[in-house]
Design brief:
The chain contains 1 helix and 20 strands. The chain has about 260 residues and is mainly β. A hairpin with a 7-residue loop joins β5 and β6.
Length: about 260
């Protein structure tokens, strides 16, 4: 059977609010890819441009950092880090699971601040290759200043969104089959018509004579592609030939069991 690989690109988004508490929220809901007449061989997921936009109102505001002209780059960096991680904040953890959500592992953490004078803050959360067995989740953590809440100043909310690429490899399978009636004589004749939708074909010689099969109409008992002795079975290999089949026998008449799959 032939394999076909293609990419499905979608946008995914989740929202976390006061009702989320400390629950882990998966980035998307996994649904197995299905397509009539095909079997999924592999699915590969990759999250790109993962971002979060935070609207935080119910913790103390954090002013925009101001640096002295004589401050070195290292001091400015240290001040910024202290502002980020020692100010009133809510922690947002990025989690990963490889076993259907029963064991989440923290892979990154971000401080959600109430910035002044900005009404919201945007975070870049990177790209994540999930393969065929992983999932990214988001969790709020209380580090001494509470969780997302609804308060007098507004409702805290986090929107997380990303581009999801789903690479799917499928294999064409047969979902219907048909029996092909035939009569084979000493004169080469067509026993199977061409069919562009064919995904498989099999021949079972249940007669008492040798049957000689080929894909050309010049098939002979001395020149053939397949010889089927009584009781023999032959199934075409991939790539599946979709043209006509011809057969001949040495004497008399016969018929064999032919099944075509589409």
């Amino acid at each position: 059977m032939a394999l076909d690989t293609f990419t499905i690109k979608t946008k995914v988004a989740i929202t976390l609010d006061a009702n989320t508490q400390t629950n882990v929220v998966p980035l998307f809901t996994y649904t197995s890819f299905t397509k009539a007449g095909y079997r999924v061989v592999n699915e590969y997921f990759e999250v790109k441009n993962l971002k979060a936009v935070a609207f935080i109102y119910n913790i103390a505001t954090v002013p925009f950092p101001v640096f002295d002209l004589e401050d070195s780059e290292s001091k400015q960096l240290l001040d910024a880090i202290n502002l980020e991680w020692k100010s009133p904040r809510i922690e947002m953890d990025i989690l990963l699971t490889t076993n259907n959500g029963t064991n989440w592992q923290r892979i990154a953490a971000y401080s959600l601040l109430n910035p002044n004078p900005y009404p919201y803050r945007e975070y870049s959360l990177g790209d994540h290759a999930l393969g065929s067995n992983a999932m990214v989740g988001i969790q709020m953590k209380n580090v001494g200043f509470g969780l997302l809440q609804n308060g007098a100043f507004g409702s805290d909310k986090i929107t997380v969104f990303a581009d999801l690429e789903r690479v799917v490899t499928v294999e064409r399978i047969s979902d219907t089959s048909s029996r092909i009636a035939n009569t084979i004589t000493t004169t080469a004749s067509k026993i199977v018509n061409s069919n562009n939708n064919r995904t498989g074909i099999s021949f079972q010689n249940n007669s008492l004579v040798d049957v000689f099969v080929d894909t050309v109409n010049t098939v002979k008992t001395s020149s053939y592609a397949v010889k089927l002795a009584p009781g023999d079975y032959y199934e075409a290999l991939a790539p599946i030939y979709t043209g006509s089949y011809y057969a001949v026998i040495a004497s008399g008449t016969a018929s064999i069991e032919i099944r075509e799959y589409v």
